[in-house]
Specification:
- The chain has 4 helices and no strands.
- By secondary structure, it is mainly α.
- It has one domain.
- Helix 1 packs antiparallel against helix 2.
């Protein structure tokens, strides 16, 4: 399995689409913030609730980018040792690094679940608009959970590359 594999390409396309939707939410938030600042400056009349919307949207926007980041393999890596060990050694190191990333994303998503449950059970709302914050946290949790199979695919690809003699 390689990056040219149809499954990989489909996963990359879906994760990029999710990130694009997240960035669209960020764009809307930026426009709201700009309008709020402009109205506050020009007329002394801010848009009430922009911070409320921001508090909900930001977690979703950030989580929407996680699967695309993982699928595109845009993590920060140190390749000095891998380059010194050759292609097979680098592939093994990539695989082990991917395992740690998988564990981190999995633990983070796992910890979002009890938090989303807590927010749901408590009925927390934003200050001004009294918007429920639970839906935003459930969406962010689902997006982080979507990153787990994406990263698992990356790990499988890296280790399969390390074990194939024709690819190294």
């Amino acid at each position: 399995m390689g990056e040219e594999h149809p499954y990989w390409q489909r996963m990359l396309k879906v994760s990029r689409t999710i990130a694009l939707i997240g960035f669209f939410g960020l764009l809307i938030l930026a426009v709201m913030t700009t309008l709020d600042i402009s109205l506050r400056w020009l007329f002394g009349a801010p848009i009430h609730g922009v911070n409320d919307v921001s508090a909900i949207v930001m977690a979703v926007v950030i989580a929407a980018c996680v699967p695309a980041n993982l699928a595109a393999r845009q993590n920060i890596t140190v390749e000095f040792l891998g380059n010194a060990l050759g292609p097979r050694g680098k592939a093994f190191l990539d695989g082990f690094g991917g395992l740690f990333t998988l564990a981190f994303v999995g633990l983070m998503a796992w910890q979002f679940i009890p938090y989303a449950i807590e927010v749901t059970n408590s009925g927390q709302t934003t200050w001004v608009l009294k918007l429920p914050i639970a839906p935003g946290w459930w969406i962010a949790t689902a997006l982080l959970l979507a990153g787990v199979p994406v990263q698992l695919t990356v790990v499988v690809f890296d280790f399969s590359r390390a074990f194939r003699s024709d690819d190294v």
